């Protein structure tokens, strides 16, 4: 009798612990799985010569569609990071530094394993003439992370 009662107490304790862990993580359950953290991404166009940028961002679950960002405009979105830290948003971005010439690239704008510690719950990204830059939350500086596939001399083609 004592052993059976002890096993029941242990099982109940384990169940309570599992429920407490899930509730303590501020997690949300959806049809796509278990999520642990809500993140906000802010992508701003600061291309030289007031150039427009076209962006098409998506994840495995969400396609944010194509949009054109004028100089100084931004795209913003929120999402939950999954418990396995495999959440990934990538963006195809293109722009025209001068007539008829297109610069484009595909970039991992948010990658949970890389960014969960780097920017926390608010991640700032910038489209620049050099490529895609991220704000370093430790130093506050903006750092080039992804150069464009080839460098264009944007200053000589006004």
Describe the overall structure.
- This protein has helices spanning 2-24, 112-115; strands at residues 28-30, 33-45, 53-58, 63-69, 74-82, 88-98, 101-111, 122-127, 131-135, 142-147.
- Residues 13-32 and 154-158 have low confidence and may be disordered.
- It is an alpha+beta fold.
- A hairpin with a 2-residue loop joins strand 1 and strand 2.
- It contains 2 helices and 10 strands, in the order αβββββββαβββ.
- Its main location: secreted.
- It comes from Papaver atlanticum.
- InterPro entries: Self-incomp_S1 (IPR010264).
- It is found in: Secreted.
Quick take:
The protein is α+β, with helices and mostly antiparallel strands and 158 residues long. Helices cover 17% and strands 49% of the residues.
State the low-pLDDT regions, or none.
13-32, 154-158
Q: Please summarize the sheet with the most strands.
A: 6 strands, mixed
- Class, according to the CATH hierarchy? Mainly Beta
Taking all Cα atoms into account, the compactness measure Rg is 22 Å
Would you report the number of β strands? 10
User: Residue share in helices?
Assistant: 10-25%
Q: Which structural class is indicated by helix and strand composition?
A: alpha+beta
Globally, the shape reads globular
CATH architecture: Sandwich
Count of individual helical segments = 2
Q: Calculate the terminal CA-CA distance, rounded to whole Å.
A: 87 Å
Question: Looking at the chains present, what oligomeric state does this protein adopt?
Answer: single chain
Mean pLDDT: 81
| Series of H and E elements | HEEEEEEEHEEE
Under CATH, the topology can be stated as Immunoglobulin-like
Family: Belongs to the plant self-incompatibility (S1) protein family.
Protein name: S-protein homolog
Organism: Papaver atlanticum
Subcellular location: Secreted
């Amino acid at each position: 009798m004592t052993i059976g009662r002890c096993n029941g107490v242990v099982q109940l304790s384990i169940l309570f612990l599992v429920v407490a862990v899930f509730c303590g993580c501020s997690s949300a359950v959806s049809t796509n799985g278990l999520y642990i953290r809500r993140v906000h991404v802010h992508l701003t166009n600061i291309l030289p010569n007031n150039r427009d940028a076209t962006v098409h961002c998506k994840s495995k679950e969400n396609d944010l569609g194509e949009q054109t960002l004028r100089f100084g405009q931004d795209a913003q979105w929120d999402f939950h990071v999954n418990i396995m830290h495999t959440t990934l948003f990538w963006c195809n971005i293109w722009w025209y530094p001068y007539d008829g010439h297109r610069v484009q690239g595909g970039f991992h704008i948010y990658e949970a394993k890389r960014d969960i510690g780097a920017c926390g719950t608010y991640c700032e990204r910038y489209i620049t003439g050099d490529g895609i830059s991220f704000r370093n939350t430790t130093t506050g500086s903006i750092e080039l992370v992804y150069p464009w596939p080839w460098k264009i001399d944007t200053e000589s083609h006004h």
